[in-house]
Amino acid sequence: MMGGTMLNTESKLVKEALKVLGKDNFALIVHGGSFPSKNGEDTGFGSYNTDAGHALIEYAENYFNAIQLGPNGKTKSTDASPYCGTIFSGNPLFIDLKQLTTKDWECILPISVYEDVVKNNPNADKGRTSYSYISKAQNDALKVAWGNFKKTSKFSKTFDEFKKENDFWLSKDALYEALSIENGSDYWYGWKNKDDKNLLNPTNVEEEKRYQARISEIEKKYSDEIEFYKFCQFVLEEQSLKTKEFALKHNIKMIADRQVAFSDRDAWAYQSLFLDGYSLGCPPDYFSKDGQAWGFPAMNPEKLFDREGNLGEGGELMKRLYKKMFTENPGGVRIDHIVGLIDPWVYQSDKTPKCEDGAGRLFSSPEHPFLSRFAVAGLNDLDYTLEADKEKRVKTLNDEQIRLYGRFIEKIVIAAAKECGLDKNAIVCEDLGTLTNPVEAVMKKYQLQGMRLTQFVVPEKPMHPYRCKNIEENVWNMVGTHDNLPVSFWAKSMINTHEGYLHAKNLVEDLFAEVENKDDIIVRLTQDADYLKFIKLVEIFASKARNVQIFFTDFFQIEDVYNRPGTSGDANWSLRLPNNFKELETINLPKILKAAIIARGKEFSDKHKDLLAKLG
User: How far is CA 96 from the centre of its chain?
Assistant: First the structure.
C-alpha cells in the first residue's frame, strides 16, 4: 500500500499528465452495489452512502474527477440487474443501515438488528453481493426502523415535504407496492384481479368510479405499507444528498445512469403512455442472431409530443424524470442506449424482434403497415437493397427530419439540463453498437458526447471509429464497460492469433509512428498479454478524446466478471470492490500516461520533458 506522501505526489503528477493530454474528465465506473464495505459492516450489498462508500470517493479524488454510477432504481427481488430498475424510485438497498443506528437518525434502528444483518450475510467480506439475502434482510430491518421512525417527530416536517414534492411519482409507486402485497406478486401482468392491473387507466366514467373506490380501499387497507414505502425513499434521498455533497467536497462529480428500460412498476403506472402491443428491443446482429426481445414498453410517440410539437403527457413525464436526475446529479447523466430515444427498434410483443415478424424502427419504417404512422423518414429516403434492421437503410435526411428525430433530445434531455443550470457536456450518450444514420445525424447536430470502446475496434477497418487515430475530441473513451470482460482477459484472448496480430499492427501504427523497431513491437504485442494490456490502456489516454472512463475491474486489476449479458441469478451483477481495495495493485497510471505522452510524438513529448522525467 502506497504511503500518504507518495500517493499525494503521484496524484499531482497524474493530474498534471491528464491536463497535458487534454483530458477534461477521468471517471471511475463503479455501480452502487459494487462499492466496498468495511470489515464487520458488510450487510450484503454495496452503497456509496456507507463509510466505506465515502472512503472510495475520497480515494478516487487522488486520480479521478468523476464516478460513473449505474442506474439507481428499485430492482425486483428476483432480478439484480440495475438496468431493469424503476425510473423514479431509488433502490432501498443503497440505504446505509448503520446510519439509522446513530443519534442523527434518533437511533431508529437498534444496533442489534443491524449486527444481525451483518452476521447472517452469507458472503460477508468476500467481495460479492448477497442479493436474495439482503433483499429480504434489508426490508425487514427497515420495517423495524419504520416502526421507531413513527414515534419520533424530528423528521416529520422534512418527511411531509418530501412526500409532497415527489407525490407525482411516489404515490403511484407506493400504491403498486400495496397492490403487490394484495396480489401476492410484484409482477402485475400475473395479477388475477383485472381491475388492479388498470387502476390508473380508466377508459370510461364507470371504470373511473370503480377504480377510485378500489384505490381508496387499498390505500386504507395498506396505509402503513404505503407510508413505509415512502419512508424508505425518504431515507435514501436524505442519505444520498449528503453523499453527493461529500463527493463535491472531494472534487468528485457523480454521474447518474438512465437506463432505456421501464420497470414493471413503471409499465403499470404509466401504461396509457406506451405503445400498445409493441416492445423495445434490438434487431438481430453479430451478438444475437435472433435479436434481443427485451420486453420493455416503448413510449407512444403521440403521447410524447402533440401535433404542434409541444410536450404531451409522456413528454412532460420524461422531462420531469431528467430534471430530477440532473438536479440530483450535477455531474451529469449517462443515457444508456441513446438509439432508443432517437431511432428505437420495436417489435410486436408476442413475436420475435426479427424483420420477418413485423419488427422495425419506430421512426424509420414508412413502408410498415402500422409503424408508418410514426415515420420521420419517407419512402424515398430508404435504401431498399438493405433490410429494415440495417444501420444505413435511411440514406437521406433533411434538416427538418433530423430535428424531428432529435425532438426527445432537444426538448426533453437538453432542455432539462439547461433548466438545471447544466450544458450538453452533462449528457453522456451510450452510442455503442448499432448507430443508424438518423442517430449519427442527431448526435452531430446537437454535438452530443458519445462513447468509443477500444476493445470493440474492428482491426480490418482502418477508419473504424473506435481506433485510436480516428477517435475525436468530443467523446468519452474507454477500454471496456460493465458489459465487457476485463481488458486482461481480452489481451490473453488475442495472444498468438491472427486477430491479435491485426490489433497489434494498428496499435503500432497509431502509437509508435516514429519508432524504428516497429516489427519487434508487433511481435511483442502478439506474444505478451501483459504488454498488450498495457498498450491498450495507453491508447485510451493517447487518443484525442477529452474524456476517459475506466471500469473498476480494469483499474484495480481484478480478474473477474461483473456482468455476463443474458444471464441472471445471484451470481450475476454481484462483483464488488473488496474491503481492502486500497491495498490492491492498481494499473500503473504514471507509466501509462508517460507512454501516452510519448505516443503523441517527439515534438509533443519534448515540450513535457520535465513531466516525463517525474513520471518515471
Answer: 21
